Amino acid sequence: MFLFYPNPTVKAFCIFHYSSSDSSTRRFIASGLVRCLDSLRAEPYNPGLIWEIAFETLLRHVFLGKRKAKTMDVKQFILEFQHSEKIKSHLIISSTLLAHVEALKGEDRSGAEKVFKTYLQLLLTEIRIARNTVKSVNYHGAEKNLTESLRMLEMNDLVSSNLYISKALSYITTSCEAAMTSLQKHNLL
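^ that's the sequence the OP posted. Answer follows.
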């Protein structure tokens, strides 16, 4: 019945209220809500996404049980690690390519900029695929910064474009590190 509430806050409260009388389940849900609030303070640019991710996590843990949720979490960590490593490599390559584009002159530079813009757009598509697969806020931040990098590139501000690529790399590295730490806890790395 609580799945039909449009507001994620109301959904989370209803899960808390209608869940079993088991105090450990209620404590788990309450701690999840606190983590959601902390996330909202840390990432103010898209709180709705954070609430939806937190809500899905709560549903998984409460209704699928700890054993299934643990297996799903490991699969998510593997996917996140895989996507993060691939995107991280492409962002490093992008930064290097941008330095080479900066060194070019005349027609060579305009052609290189066109190819580089296409490369960044393809990388942006890859980030969106990863964001939809993993549902991590870090991918949203990387997407936002790479979009801004493309905008700066359109304005011929290559220095700012490189800065935004670096910021996107920071988001992806954070995601990769979190997945790697979790996989190490499960003795998979």
